[in-house]
Amino acid sequence: MKLFIALVGLLALAKALPAVTHSKVLCYYDSRSYVRESQARMLPLDLDPALSFCTHLLYGYAGIQPDTYKLVSLNENLDIDRTHDNYRAITSLKAKYPGLTVLLSVGGDADTEEPEKYNLLLESQQARTAFINSGVLLAEQYGFDGIDLAWQFPRVKPKKIRSTWGSLWHGIKKTFGTTPVDEKESEHREGFTALVRELKQALIHKPKMQLGVTVLPNVNSTIYHDVPAIINLVDYVNVGAYDYYTPTRNNKEADYTAPIYTPQNRNPLQNADAAVTYWLTSGAPSQKIVLSIATFGRTWKLDADSEIAGVPPIHTDGPGEAGPYVKTEGLLSYPEVCGKLINPNQQKGMRPHLRKVTDPSKRFELGLTKDTDLTYIFGTYAFRLPDDNGEGGIWVSYEDPDTAGQKAAYVKLVKESRWCRYCGPIIG
Ligand SMILES: *[C@@H]1O[C@H](CO)[C@@H](O)[C@H](O)[C@H]1NC(C)=O
């Protein structure tokens, strides 16, 4: 089986709705999976079985050249050169799926050289123009249907849920937000609005070209996204409501990485519902909001100080060991998680499999109609305590088909507005 390291954004399950005209299903291809080995290697052609479910396919990621501010390939050998030619390989999938919109995505945290260029570009009209002109040209040259801005904005500072033993979220709330990460917040907000406006202007005579915005995890949209100013200019907003907790951001404490609602004693702004609500209450139509679902889990190492019940937030000792295929510390792809859950031929000396803990609440059932059915849905986790030598302890928060289905159900509820906490009584 090939690994899908992909994010599938669902505005609505196309199949579950009678009218599919406004439903967007964004699928994402990480070009870095092209260079992985054996089962983890995934070529554009391997996307084929998924594509009939996708309205959009995002190719990640292009970047920005630091001095010129041009939009460029981050790996020309892979993307452009004739041997691999991934740009053309991906856009030529449209021959088989003519309805598919293929976009070139920029940023996405894949562009690590001089990351401050993302802020600097927003401060300069000249830089924005260079970016836009080169971007539109590159997209057209390789047959992309437009550009997705997965802008590398500064991130919300990570916070511990428990600042000291037993003192929970309410105890540290006061200190939240005292140190600004970005001293030019409003300038960058205005710069991003200008970038979207100018890019849309450049695409205006190219009616088939689309423009999308991807909000990367832990980017504070309240600060950087002027919703009323940009929402009519973009085809969608892809809300990255995952990775709220990661072993990189939160080394000593593990928690649900992508809850739908706020678990008790957590920051009420760090969950899918809060992120979606911000866009909705700022005037974004639900048809333009896409909710991302991560197909990987985040892992931490448990040690002798970790609470044995495994319940998050839980004390940890840094990122978990790399998995056999994707070979990345602190991250397991969904197939790698599955491989650790079942162990049919448990051999002597092998580590026991992980214990999976699903949501304590009722399981997701089709036909749920009110938010209370989803209120306690935070995600799935699995863990194994360390052995007597302190080895082998692991805790992983991940999305499985049930929780992905719950997110789709949430999206459907929001979209159909059978339920709406912010717009009063429901009519009809
Ligand atoms: C985002 O910014 C707003 C406005 O500054 C602030 O009130 C809020 O706490 C921030 N959200 C997070 C998750 O830090």
Tell me which ligands are bound: 2-acetamido-2-deoxy-beta-D-glucopyranose
What is CATH's topology name? TIM Barrel
Give the topology string: H per helix, E per strand.
EEHEEHHEHHEHHEHHEEHEEEEHEEEH
Query: Structural class, from helix and strand content?
Result: alpha/beta
Shape: globular
Question: What is the overall number of helices?
Answer: 12
Strand order of the largest sheet: 1-2-3-5-6-7-8-10
Q: How would you classify the quaternary structure?
A: single chain
DSSP helix fraction: 10-25%
Largest sheet: 8 strands, mixed, barrel
> What is the CATH class designation?
Alpha Beta
- Low-pLDDT regions: 1-20, 171-177, 362-368, 423-428
Strand percentage, roughly? 15-25%
Give the name of the CATH superfamily. Answer: Glycosidases
Mean pLDDT: 86
- Strand tally is 16
Supply the CATH architecture. Alpha-Beta Barrel
Structural description of this entry:
This protein is of the alpha/beta class. The protein has one domain (4-294, 400-425): TIM Barrel (Alpha-Beta Barrel). It is 24% helix and 18% strand. It contains 12 helices and 16 strands. The protein has helices at 48-51, 76-79, 86-91, 117-122, 125-141, 169-172, 185-203, 221-224, 227-230, 272-281, 334-341, 401-416; strands at residues 7-10, 25-30, 56-64, 71-73, 101-107, 146-150, 210-215, 236-239, 253-254, 289-294, 296-300, 314-315, 331-333, 355-357, 380-384, 394-398. The strands form 3 sheets. The chain has an 8-stranded mixed barrel with strand order 1-2-3-5-6-7-8-10, surrounded by 4 helices. A 5-stranded antiparallel beta sheet has the order 13-11-16-15-14, with helices on one face. Strand 3 and strand 4 form a beta hairpin. The longest helix is centred in the middle third of the chain and has 19 residues, at 185-203. The relative contact order is 0.12. The model is unreliable at 1-20, 171-177, 362-368 and 423-428 (pLDDT under 50). Residues 156, 177, 220, 222-223, 267, 269-270 line the site of 2-acetamido-2-deoxy-beta-D-glucopyranose.
